[in-house]
Amino acid sequence: MTKHGEGGSFFRSRKFTDWATVKEALIARSIDAVFILAPMAMQLRADGVPVKVVYLGHRDGTAIVVGTDSDIEDFGDLRGKTVAIPSRFANQNILMHRMMKKWNMPYDSIELQEVPPPEHPSALRVGGVDAYIVGEPFAAQAEMDGYGRVLYHTKDIWEDFISCVLVVREELIEEDPDLVQELVDGIAKSGKWLDGDLAHRMNAAEMAAEHYFGQDPDLLKFVLSKPVDRVKYTNLAPLKKDFDEIMELAFEIDVLSRRVEFEEYVDDSFVRPLEDIDWNMELLPEDPDGGIR
Amino acid sequence: MKSKILLSAAIWLCLISTAHVWLNVGFGNLGHKVQVMMGKEKPVLQVGFLPVT
Fold it and tell me: Which value does ipTM take for this structure?
């Protein structure tokens, strides 16, 4: 997240620790823009909250992790096991449903347990769950610490997997579309820069660990490089075919209270071709706080 | 009598508006919004996130 865009507007990040608080902040309009789980955005819209998905946060960046010495070798081996998911509104839950359908397993053949993302690795370590599915860096945490191994990266089982999406209140789109455009352009440019060079990723890992995530920089470097396509930051336009599939699968397992049409909850008018945008470092204004440029 | 009612209404309106700005908007935020409208400051947008991809 850049602190300001080339247009000079300031974007301040606000860290949350659980999805319920994020949702409430968005409903109460104490925040106008937030990265949330894709199915959660759909359900907010189904509940009448005036929000729109305007961009994606990233592609892939999720893994199913099992214990290093576990006898689980493929998805079928998860039958009858307990698997941690971040939230029932997470696309990781939808992915489990999609995989169970593919493997001809009923949705209740695996016990899915909602666990906050930071607690996934420790739940596996103490034997509270047999496996977990979560976004990075918590999948890599167990792998790097030596007690977990990746059963599947999402890139291998659901190509271009979507997890978090950028949602903004409709009032903001109406009141200040230029600000939303500046935000979307900034994310697109950051993604293009990140995916353009491994050195950029290492630089970003150091910066994000220190200023935003409060996590071990080596862990973030691991996530961004092993393998390098573990998480991707380009191809972030919200596409109807992707969202329709997520919506139908979510509706099948009652994550959504009703079907929600793509046009109801997505505004893709802020998406611009990547070749039309690029960082121009000379144009960035000085940060009066002396913070990150 | 009429002027007393009008004066009371005006005072009440001032007090309730001040209380609204104080409790729901914030004087700093209001000042910033005025500066943005006048083109003297750039807008600030808070973007929420969880430290997970």
Answer: 0.75
